[in-house]
Amino acid sequence: MEQLKMMLVDDEERFLSTTCKLLEKKGFDVQTASSGGKALEMLRASPVHVVILDVKMPGMDGVATLREIKRQFPMVEVIMLTGHATVESAIDGLKSGAVDYLMKPADLEEIIDKATQAFHRRTDIEEKIRVARMRGLMKTPREMLKHA
């Protein structure tokens, strides 16, 4: 099975470096980006499964970044990271395609749990797509007999 690859996107450098180091110590493949624009640029170069995305960032905010991620990379699962003042933005994020949200300060185990759930959700969707494609390629027994 493929290993979960995640990206942390936040303008708080200390949060990024600390959380990244802790996740890597637990064996996760983690990238970090300090802005929405940088995250999109990195996703084009090196795709990930799950993005943990801060709602409140200067420039391109989290909701705008989420919409662009979902437009360009629809299979990437996004979890919004929000403070108390931006719960409404997290709800906007859920309406725009985020799979879940975390409240700051987020506990490391909670980040891991939600990212793992999102990863499994993505793998389930990918499997359903594979099965649907295979069914489209395979003939039914009735069609096979017709051509025999």
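Next protein, fold it too.
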Amino acid sequence: MRQAIDIAGVIARLRRTRRGWTRTALAQIAEQDRDPFRVLVACILSLRTQDTTTGPAAARLFAIADTPSA
């Protein structure tokens, strides 16, 4: 038999704990730049790397080429 899920309880628990969450490198880039190109590139990088690598790799890449034409 399936147990009922208390969605309101789950959401309340998530809200209580979110201050302790570590934001991903992708989330930081998306919030900081708000540039769809940079977010896409960072997303691709994040698929292949850990967060400790994604942020610095994106910063190095965007220092050289920060637009599609560059």
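About the second fold: The chain has a mean pLDDT of 90.
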